[in-house]
Amino acid sequence: MPGKAPNGKKPIGNRIKGNKEAEMKDTSKKGKATKKAAKDGDDEMTVVVPSTKGGSKTTKPPASSAAADADADGDVDMDASDKTDADEEPAIDPVAQTISDIKSNFALLDRAVALFDARFSLRALRSISSIRKRLTPDILAQVVAETFPAMGPSSEVAKQLLEACGRQDAPLGRQSSEMEVDSEAAKPTSKSAAKKDKEPKDIIPEVDVFLGILTQVYLFDKELFMEGATFSEVLSDRIHSLNRRTLDSLSAKVYFYYSLFCENLKPLPPSPQSPIVAIRPTLLAALRTAVLRKDVDTQASVIVLLLRNYLLTSHISQADLLVSHTQFPENAANNQVARFLYYLGRIRAIQLRYSEAHEHLTAATRKAPSSNCALGFAQTATKLLLVVELLMGDIPDRATFRQSTMEQTLRPYFLLVQAVRVGNLEDFETAIVDHEDTFKRDGTYTLILRLRQNVIKTGIRMMSLSYSRISLRDICIRLHLNSEESAEYIVAKAIRDGVIEATLDRERGFMKSKEVGDIYATREPGEAFHDRIRACLALHDESVKAMRFPMNQHRLELKNAQEAREREREMAKEIQDGDLDEDDLGGDFDGI
């Protein structure tokens, strides 16, 4: 009876003679090839016919056939050698993996230079967060030694990198083991090829600046602030001497770490002898150069660093002059825009311009990244925003304090909001005393001290809404004031500022509230609606500006349109001359 092979190929027929068993064997070259393929992974096909009643001899199948029959599903087990090879996978060396990850960014920097596209440089910078935990001086020294040649103009830069890592004795021009194996396998066949291989390859400045940023990250993580400031000064001088637009995003990161090193050097700010005061000329020179070179990334980063520098030393007037005399780039990165708006909101809050501060801080919290990597910035901006809202006389939404990422951090501010909302001066002062250290650490203590008058105003407004007439003595008792004269002055100021609508009777010593009218009959709802429309339009404009378009795409479209018109003219001319007919055009043609 014909049987079908398990691999789905041509059926094979068996002929039984007598009581003997038939075993198929292929002695041809094709059979040898099949048997060889079976050794590589496919089982050898052997058909065994069961013996009849008279037959007592059986044919022993080969080992591969026995293994195949033992498996009910017809799967072939792996050999012992294959199992050991599959189980014993080579372990990945973490040092070699880190070096490979660092060197993989060099290709991105090369593409950024070749294509003049900053997105590849940004991809290389984003990889620093995953590399920084594995950085060691030996890894940095090995990467520098394998990247830079022993001789050449770039060797001086490599020596500076090795000196910052503490590995001055590391030899340059060393090749990795993989490169040595490749060079031995592919030896040059001519003297010119050998001479070409011996010539050192030029290292683009983007590579050594990227390695310098990795060195800055390592020194900052190890809290070597003095060494980091010294190395950052040398690195910033080198960037200032170069004029390459492909270095813009990298130079912004260099200045960021340079300022961060100086902030951690003693004496710490707000001391006037702090090193952050000494780097202001360097940052101002970098800002002038960035504006002249139209370096958007460095310009935005340095403006933010200068504002932070002035605020740390409480030089509010200088920060205000910087904002008024410079223009923040419109197409800056979203993170830099969020930082700029935050510092601008802090400046306006200190200057008592609460409406502008509220607008800037609201935009900063909206532009802040939603990921956990920027959680600290979102919390800091939200704290200042809450204080500004209280200074404006508004009560923040309760949902702000119910967020899982904000609930614990905003607990002291929640107590403040409760005291201000009720107008309880005693609870307000208790909250300030209990959480004074937290407020000073957040930089909101001086602004919170201004809230005392707001608490009193809020209490007076609550009483004006609750009572049509209330005596000054009762106001003094409820607000815990010292005398009735203080209550009289506070009520008079609240009436003049428009906080309450009431009249003050000094002879009888009471305050009489006016009847509350319909708020929808006033202009307040229309103004609020106008503010929301303006915010939506501003968001739409920013979204349109943030869209990316292919460079010089309009020129390509014009070129294609011009070529199409030229082809149409040539075709029309050929038709008029009689060179083309309807068949050549591929369809019916009515004429022109």
Automatic annotation (TrEMBL):
GO MF term list: enzyme regulator activity
Source organism per UniProt: Zalerion maritima
Protein name according to UniProt: 26S proteasome regulatory subunit rpn3
Family: Belongs to the proteasome subunit S3 family.
Keywords assigned: Proteasome
Biased composition (Acidic residues): 70-91, 577-592
GO cellular component terms, A-Z: proteasome regulatory particle, lid subcomplex
Bias type Polar residues, positions: 53-62
Domain PCI per the UniProt entry, residue ranges: 338-518
InterPro entries noted in UniProt: CSN3 (IPR050756), PCI_dom (IPR000717), PSMD3_C (IPR013586), TPR_PSMD3_N (IPR057985), WH_DNA-bd_sf (IPR036390)
SMART domains associated with the record: PAM (SM00753), PINT (SM00088)
UniProt lineage: Eukaryota, Fungi, Dikarya, Ascomycota, Pezizomycotina
Compositionally biased residues, Basic and acidic residues: 18-29, 562-576
Gene Ontology biological process terms from the UniProt entry: regulation of protein catabolic process; ubiquitin-dependent protein catabolic process
A Pfam cross-reference name: TPR_PSMD3_N
